[in-house]
Inverse folding.
């Protein structure tokens, strides 16, 4: 029995399992830990993009490249910026001092998080990885919304081929041809269906 317990302990210590604890009361820690992970999960597919919706957040509706999500009385508005992604536009954001929270996110993927106080609620604007989430929340819900938004934004993946087709103006243009069914075609032989049936 001792040999079995010893083997189990050796196996446990050599597998390299790690647990990362996220301090959900610190916004810097939340975005630092979640955005640093290479998340490959997804459970929602849109036109030219896919992403992961965490447990407790529900998909409501899509309008073009805008998704509406809901969790515990809070609506999340997700906007996918496919044009900026396609042209690899840089994020131009300057941190602001008159905000409740303002931070530019730099690294492999860029973005920013800005939180403004508006009377009795807080307006969150979180842009990362060419996607943006906006929400209006009470102060007690800020960290929870930032955590969910971090998971969603960090998992956005784009389909380059679909986006290129969407942005190609000539791909979906109609080629119109004028057609008049009442005008007799002088060049065609006398094709009369009734005459054909009679023969």
């Amino acid at each position: 029995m001792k040999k079995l317990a010893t083997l189990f302990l050796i196996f446990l210590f050599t597998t390299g399992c790690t647990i990362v604890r996220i301090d959900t009361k610190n916004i810097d820690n939340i975005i630092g830990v979640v955005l640093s992970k290479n998340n490959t999960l997804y459970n929602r597919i849109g036109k030219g993009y896919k992403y992961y919706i965490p447990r407790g957040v529900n998909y409501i509706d899509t309008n073009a490249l805008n998704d509406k999500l809901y969790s515990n009385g809070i609506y999340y508005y997700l906007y996918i910026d496919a044009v900026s992604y396609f042209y690899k536009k840089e994020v131009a954001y300057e941190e602001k001092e008159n905000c409740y929270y303002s931070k530019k996110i730099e690294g492999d993927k860029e973005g920013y998080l800005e939180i403004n106080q508006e009377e009795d609620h807080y307006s969150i604007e979180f842009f990362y990885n060419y996607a943006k989430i906006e929400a209006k929340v009470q102060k007690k819900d800020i960290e929870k919304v930032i955590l969910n938004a971090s998971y969603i934004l960090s998992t956005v993946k784009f389909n380059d081929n679909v986006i290129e087709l969407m942005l190609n103006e000539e791909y979906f243009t109609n080629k119109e041809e004028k057609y008049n069914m009442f005008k007799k075609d002088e060049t065609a032989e006398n094709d009369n269906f009734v005459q054909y049936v009679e023969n």
Observations:
- The beta strands are 44-46, 49-51, 58-63, 66-71, 74-80, 101-105, 111-118, 121-128, 131-137, 157-158.
- Residues 17-21 have pLDDT under 50 and may be disordered.
- DSSP finds six helices and ten strands in the chain.
- Residues 2-14 form the longest helix (13 residues).
